[in-house]
Amino acid sequence: MGALRKLAGQTIIYGFSNIISRLLNYLLVPYYTHLLSPGEYGPVNIIYAIIPFLFAIYTYGLETSYFRFSQNRDERKAVLGTSSVSIIFSTLLFTFLLLHYKQVIAGWITLPNHPEYVTYFAWILFFDTLGVIPFARLRLEDRPVKYAVIKVSGIVVNILFNVFFLSICPWLLHHGHHWVVLFYNPYERIGYIFIANILSSAFAWLLLWKEFFHIEWQFDFRLWWRIMKYSLPLVIVGFAGMVNETMDRAWFLPHYLPYDHAKNDYLIGVYSANYKLAILITLFIQAFRLGAEPFFFQQSTYANAKQTYARVMKYFVMVVSIMFLFVAMYLPVWKLFLRRPAYWEGLYVVPYLLAANMFLGIYYNLTIWFKLTDRTRMGAYITVFTALLAFALNYWWIPIWGYFGSALATMVCYLVQMVICYVLGQKYYPIPYAVKKLVSIMVMAFLFYAVYWLINRYLLSPQDPYQIAWPSLLLATVLFCTYVYILYQIEKPYLQQLFWPAKMKNKS
Questions:
Q1: How far is Cα 412 from Cα 18, in angstroms, rounded to an integer?
Q2: What backbone torsions phi and psi does residue 175 show, to the nearest 5 degrees?
Q3: Does residue 177 share a domain with residue 46?
Q4: Quick one: 324 and 414 in the same domain?
């Protein structure tokens, strides 16, 4: 139970930093759309859609490999040195290639007149990648506070430089301070968004200088080869995983929606805005992964490791099921984050996207089996299969159902991915998950939402099920609290032991 309390505390810290970072980044969206025309803002989205794919190549699974091979304390220094040397040289190589072929790459990404954008994202990737092992070291050494401070500081610096370049510099120039032109070109505003990102990434890396430079610089080729055999399949896992996470908006919908360009753009905008309402579960999953990955590897050396993994899974499913209901049943309130009513027509896809993220989070928990047994190739096979399934389902369903087809395909793909990972995991590294209880928790959440939807849709708000009405909110609150109470009663002894161990000890 002590280990679980430690994981819970770390997840809260990582979650806090993640939420703050996301909220701060979210502030840039209305800022950009206020200053920039759609034609100017388009390239920004193209570049930031490309970066995650390239980041998977730049890092080639070394973060997870570092956790895996650092469990042997005798090799920990060698793993740190070898991983650091490897990622430094590969980062220099990849960055050189991007810079050397920037004109060609700019043509590939449909921005042939702006090869400088390739230069910008090459440097963003450069500094972000150099920070991967130092950040992983903080997580391995159980220093989530420093991790959180550096992450949030980097976001704050990014916002400050955005404001400086896009608002303060034009204001200074307009008021006769022509010395600004020494470093500012008013006709290249888009570039300064990326420059601000470069400066913030460099700033975050500098804050990691102790973790980066205070290592024993050594390179063990045999150890490096073992790490590569483990980590290279994770490149495919990360790369193919992006198909489900970003390709629906970047490729599937633009190519498979059967309407004219203007209507397709409108529908993609509606879908993308509603996709963001699933952010609550996404934030928790990301925070959980930050704390759980090193935790899982550390626990692997204990005799009761499998029981710990099973217990963590149970509490994880309980939390994401509660979050599912909290977002799905209070959509009439959450919709206010989408400022324009035109976006509200897509609210009906949100529960499907929430369920998809639930399945994705469970899948991340299940992946521990192929990471611990060094069968990362199996993870690659699973992810490639579901990526191909995503292509097939989106090709089939989007022309029929529009963006609902994409949301449904996302949910089905993550469900299939979760089931396959569980089945294979039980074959190669069986963990005693309480499958019946886990399924019951999730099914009960879906049933509670179905009851809410049917009553609200056909009795309380038949005209508009997403309007803010007191009867609907009261029904949602009663059902939500009932669900939470049922879970608490089922797990009451374990939850009290987890969160109030002193109280339980006094009773005994």
A1: 27
A2: -100, 25
A3: yes
A4: yes
- Structure-token match 């793993």, residue found: 79
pLDDT tens, per residue, the chain with 508 residues: 555 555 555 555 555 565 666 666 666 766 766 676 545 655 676 677 678 878 888 998 898 889 888 877 778 889 999 999 999 999 999 999 999 999 998 888 767 888 898 999 999 999 999 999 999 898 888 787 888 889 889 989 999 999 999 888 888 988 888 888 888 888 788 888 899 999 999 999 999 988 888 888 889 999 999 999 888 888 887 776 677 777 776 678 877 888 876 777 778 778 877 887 887 787 778 777 777 777 788 788 788 889 989 988 998 999 999 999 999 999 999 888 776 687 788 899 999 999 999 999 999 899 989 988 889 889 889 988 998 999 999 999 999 999 899 999 999 999 999 999 999 999 999 999 999 999 999 999 999 999 999 999 899 888 888 888 899 999 999 999 999 999 999 888 777 665 555 454 455 4
Looking at the structure of the chain, the number of domains it has is 2
Identify the domain containing residue 229 by its residue range: 26-247
Structure token pair of residue 486: 């049922």
- Locus of tokens 């990301």: 286
**Domain end position, chosen among 247, 270, 300:** 247
Q: What is the pTM of this model?
A: 0.76
Neighbour count for residue 168 (Cβ, 10 Å): 14
